[in-house]
Amino acid sequence: MRTVTAAAASAPPDRRTAPPSRLRRSWDRNWYAWAMVLPVVIVLAVLIFYPLGRGIWLSFTNLNEANQAAEICTKSITGSQVCDENPNPWEYAGLDNYVRVLTGQVGQFWEWTGITLIWTFVGVACHYGLGLGLAVMLNRPMRGRGLYRVLLVLPWAVPAFVSAFAWKFIFNERFGLVNSVLAAFGIDPVSWFADRWTSLFTAIVTNVWLGVPFMMVALLGGMQTIPGELYEAAEIDGASPWQRFRAITLPGLRPTSMTVILLGTIWTFNLFPIIFLVTEGEPAGQTEILVTGAYRAGFEGIRNYSLASTYGVLILSILLVFSVFYRRALRKQGEVW
Amino acid sequence: MSQATVSVEAEAEVAVPAAPTGTARRTGRSRRGRAASLLLHGALTVASLIAIGPIVWVLLSSFKPGYAVQSTDLALVEDPTLSNYRYVLFDTSFLRWLANSVLVAALTMVIGIFLSATTGYAVSRFNFPGRRPLMMVFLVTQMFPVAILIVPIYTIMARLGLINTLPSLVIAYLTIAIPFCAWMLKGYFDSIPTTLDEAAALDGCGPFVTFWRVVLPLARPAIAVTAFYTFLTAWGEVAYASAFIQTDDQFTLAYGLQQFVPRFNPQWEYLTAAAVLVTVPAGLVFLFAQRHLVSGLTAGGTKG
């Protein structure tokens, strides 16, 4: 730090005698930039775009666990191995997977999509609403603010899989906390995982509990970038708290809100562990969302890799369409991106 | 820049509703009414209870013997014992899983941050051709569902003979970590005044030196937050861990703990103890990092 300011004070540019041309300078800068970006670009290409390309290609094949090998080897009684060419190797299958998935011959694509949409919408709405409410309350000067903040942020510190187990435990039919509390009020215990909607409810509760702290902290940060003079001016003009909230806080939060809602939607849409561990799709696969459905297609039973990839492509398409529309809506409001 | 436009906008809108409410109600925010104060604290207390309730319940349950955990009575403490912890720590592979998890998460964190910090800086400071597409890529990769990458990465790992090894998990987690780290760090670098860079450049520092000596030390909070976040992501990942790892000695915690809750006869008393053991270290680091969270996150969150 100190060396820097000292350097700024003694400013003679001792670089070269002639100032470099603008073009030359821009090339210099870009050279550095590209060098800095290069490792990540390579990693992204190898780890994301190559697999992505392959995944898209796989979705046009019929690859599964049974037909993936080029040769099938069987051990004979003498211990020697006999290898035969796989009589039924995997091959290009065109749009078969898509047709079968979209027409419902395999899996329950539309049903899962419906569940996913409900799961995402309710989840993000609760995240944002509760996060905003708590952030507004925490943004006021008051006693014990630091303590509240730490307590409210705690769920975030719990790894998702631990919360999933914790809530599954709490919603347990026989001895879970929720049913015990209900019993204390004389209400019959609910078998949460026996019905689609109560089962989905447990997963959403878990997700909301887990996701609110992030929203709260992000929005709290956004609020702190709003200049305090605005509130003072509004107060002098006699604006009520609600008016101040509507006229200052909400517009000031817009950039933050737009980002966290977009990210929250994408994350929730693809959120794997909660559904996978809390409801496990119970009852009978009725609370499966697209991501867990795709996972089960690919890694449970006879592993159907091509089918899982097909779901993957469909999920990605849905999200891409969503973000394009989202961005367009934002651009109309004059947002930066 | 975006911030400036926002405040202008806000100011314009403030002027409108201010006029009609002429009732001289100037209760300053510091001079809140007693009822309002009560309401505020009440709401926050309820919220805090909901936030810590499940954690406390699991913590309490972890000290109960099995029959008390599986009872319908609402007892806070019943025959407290440490036997669950003893069992989890010494009679299961828990410590092995813990070591695996720490190794995987730490490697992901270090490699992820290391690779993406320069990128975040370059994207933040230089307006080079390819900058905007790169930012788009970072955002789009956030959308990639685990389902589309998991199969190809699985087949690649299988071909490389890496299935059932920890490096396969690190590689898989980097696909999640790198775009996120680069995005977050770029946002924070944006908030560091460029005048510092210029001063360093006048001093004769090249971009790499400037980055290393000037910008990186200033970005310590953001790096702490990003590192922590990456660590937790890898720590809690379930899908790849379930798909890639097959033998008990290579499990990570996220997958290993599932062993305690099979569909029939789940051993909740051990699960709760293990859950506490998993959460406590993460929670401590978190409490330490959380004071930086607000500054670290907002920078990343608000600027596109």
Q: Structurally, how many domains make up the residues of chain A?
A: 1
Strand content of chain A is under 5%
What does the overall shape of chain A look like?
Answer: globular
Query: Beta-strand level of the residues of chain B, as a percent range?
Result: under 5%
The CATH architecture of chain A comes to Orthogonal Bundle
Region (Disordered) (chain A): 1-21
Subcellular location (chain A): Cell membrane
Membrane topology (chain A): Multi-pass membrane protein
Protein name (chain A): ABC transporter permease
Verbal overview:
Chain B: Pfam families: BPD_transp_1 (PF00528). Chain B: Keywords: Cell membrane, Membrane, Sugar transport, Transmembrane, Transmembrane helix, Transport. The complex is a heterodimer of chains A (337) and B (304). In chain A, α6 (160-170) packs across α8 and α10 runs antiparallel to α13 (305-332). In chain A, a hairpin with a 5-residue loop joins β1 and β2. Chain A contains 13 helices and 2 strands; from the N terminus they run ααββααααααααααα. Chain A has helices at residues 2-9, 22-58, 96-102, 109-138, 145-157, 160-170, 177-184, 196-224, 228-236, 241-269, 273-279, 290-299, 305-332; strands spanning 71-75, 81-85. Chain A is mostly helical and 337 residues long. Chain A starts with a helix and ends in a 5-residue tail after the last helix. Chain A has a two-stranded antiparallel ribbon with strand order 1-2. Chain A has a single domain (97-332), classed as MetI-like (MetI-like fold, Orthogonal Bundle). Chain B has 304 residues and is mostly helical. Chain B folds into 2 domains: 37-70, no CATH class; 83-299, MetI-like fold, CATH 1.10.3720.10. In chain B, 74% of the residues lie in helices and 0% in strands. Chain B is built from 14 helices and no strands. Chain B has helices at residues 2-18, 34-62, 66-69, 83-91, 94-125, 131-141, 146-160, 166-190, 194-202, 207-218, 220-235, 239-244, 253-256, 268-302. In chain B, α5 (94-125) packs parallel to α8 (166-190) and α9 crosses α10. Chain B is globular. Chain B starts with a helix and ends with a helix. The relative contact order of chain B is 0.12. Residues 1-30 and 300-304 of chain B have low confidence and may be disordered. Chains A and B meet through α1, α2, α4, α5 and α6 of A and α1, α2, α5, α6 and α7 of B.
